[in-house]
UniProtKB/TrEMBL annotation:
GO cellular component, as recorded: plasma membrane
Family statement drawn from the similarity comment of this UniProt entry: Belongs to the F420H(2)-dependent quinone reductase family.
Gene source species: Amycolatopsis thermoflava
Protein name as annotated: Deazaflavin-dependent oxidoreductase (Nitroreductase family)
A GO molecular function held by the record: oxidoreductase activity
Reaction equations catalysed: oxidized coenzyme F420-(gamma-L-Glu)(n) + a quinol + H(+) = reduced coenzyme F420-(gamma-L-Glu)(n) + a quinone
Pfam families hit by this protein: F420H2_quin_red (PF04075)
InterPro entries associated with the record: F420H2_quin_Rdtase, Split_barrel_FMN-bd
Signal sequence, start to end: none
Length: 148
């Protein structure tokens, strides 16, 4: 990832995304998603694929063995959330879980590994099943692993 401290931060134009990030950062990583049935979130910081600007996105906290699953559900919308193209272009990201920030590298999952992580993600956040039914696209799953 380009050094986020050197890039220009561009808050999301989407109100709920921008507000969730602001609440999360103001609470030092303690705020949950403020949506119906909301739960714990993490914030990923990416470099914009087109703009090169720093972007921050709240995603549901799905962690196992120090790895995090980023489910690009977009609430079952027709298109992937913007952070997917950012990660595909720049797979090294900063992830904040609570007050802890670390650098991770992301890779898209496929095959058996995707199936196992999907099952785990749905067990943590069952709403993903409903959102997958709402869309014709296959929801991308990205695994974020610590960069040592």
């Amino acid at each position: 990832m380009s050094d986020p401290s050197g890039g220009e931060y561009a808050p999301s134009p989407t109100d709920w995304v921008r507000e969730a990030v602001e609440r999360f950062e103001a609470s030092n990583g303690e705020a949950n998603l403020n949506e119906p049935g909301g739960g714990p979130i993490i914030v990923i910081t990416t470099v914009g694929a087109k703009t090169g600007k720093i972007r921050k996105s709240p995603i549901m906290r799905i962690e196992k063995d120090g790895k995090y699953l980023a489910v690009a559900s977009n609430g079952g919308g027709r298109a992937n959330p913007g952070w997917v193209s950012n990660i595909r272009a720049h797979p090294v990201v900063e992830l904040q879980d609570g007050p802890v920030k670390k650098t991770y590298v992301a890779r898209e999952l496929d095959g058996e590994e995707r199936r196992e992580w999907w099952e785990y993600g749905v067990a943590v956040w069952p709403t993903y099943l409903e959102w997958q039914r709402k869309t014709d696209r296959r929801i991308p799953l990205l695994l974020l692993e610590p960069l040592d």
